[in-house]
Amino acid sequence: MLPYPSVLRFMELLTTDASVDQERDAVLRALNRGEGLMAPERVGSALALKVRNVSGGTIRSFRRFPAAGFRLEPGAAPDSPYVESGRTALRLSYRDPVGSRGGNAEMEIRLDLFELLQRFEQGYRPSVADLQGQQLALAVFKNRLSAVPYQEVLLTTHGHDLRRIHRTEDSVLHMEELTAGPAEDGQESNGSAAEGRATDGAEEAAWR
């Protein structure tokens, strides 16, 4: 039995020379679970980054970064024929998809972190030892990402109820409830649900 069940998939990803969008989405879902969201499929194709922990607070807030700005690809291949100098990590990077506001963040995903993210996606809750072991890489990435401009915020009280606040180009703030979609019944999300939009019948409020 392999100590890392995901090692074969990890090695397969290291051998490609292209961006792996499907695996990128899985990594983002895993990170969303790691942030404490119990229904990451409602977030849609995006990463939800928890703002901070407030003592005694009843509402948690998350910044939402669209998946279009993320890219998952193998790390740079060293110019050497020896196995010891081969690729050892994937690289997850983010650049503002609009391109006009700037800002970027990068994180190397080595095998141990990749394995932990695979467990996150399956619903595993990290132990203290897990968090301590991978805290540095995740913390640096989150700190860099928190400095990048964002246009959307998610609000929740316990991780299942989600409300989305986003600003449109006309500087109007919209708030809508992200209700349960087909993905929570064991099906793949698509259409507006996949993009983290409100489902039919949900009320929306707007402020200028």
Fold and architecture overview:
- Residues 180-208 are annotated as: Disordered.
- By secondary structure, the protein is an alpha+beta fold.
- The chain has one domain (7-207).
- The protein contains 5 helices and 9 strands.
- Strands 1-2-6-7-8-9 form a 6-stranded antiparallel beta sheet.
- Helix 2 (21-34) crosses helix 3 (111-121).
- The longest helix is centred in the middle third of the chain and has 19 residues, at 128-146.
- The protein is globular and about 60 Å long.
Short précis:
Residues 197-208 have a biased composition (Basic and acidic residues). By secondary structure, the protein is an alpha+beta fold. 27% of the residues lie in helices and 24% in strands.
What are its keywords?
208 residues; alpha+beta; 6-stranded antiparallel beta sheet; 3-stranded antiparallel beta sheet; 9 strands
User: Average pLDDT value?
Assistant: 78
Strand order in the largest sheet: 1-2-6-7-8-9
Biggest sheet record: 6 strands, antiparallel
What are the secondary-structure elements, in order, as H or E?
HHEEEEEHHEEEHE
Helix content: 25-40%
Q: How many beta strands in the DSSP annotation?
A: 9
Shape: globular
Beta-strand share of residues? 15-25%
By DSSP (H or I, 4+ residues per run), the number of helices equals 5
- Can you tell me the number of structural domains? 1
Structural class: alpha+beta
Our measurement of the CA-to-CA distance between the termini, rounded to an integer number of angstroms, reads 59 Å
Q: Radius of gyration from the CA trace?
A: 18 Å
Low-confidence stretches: 182-202
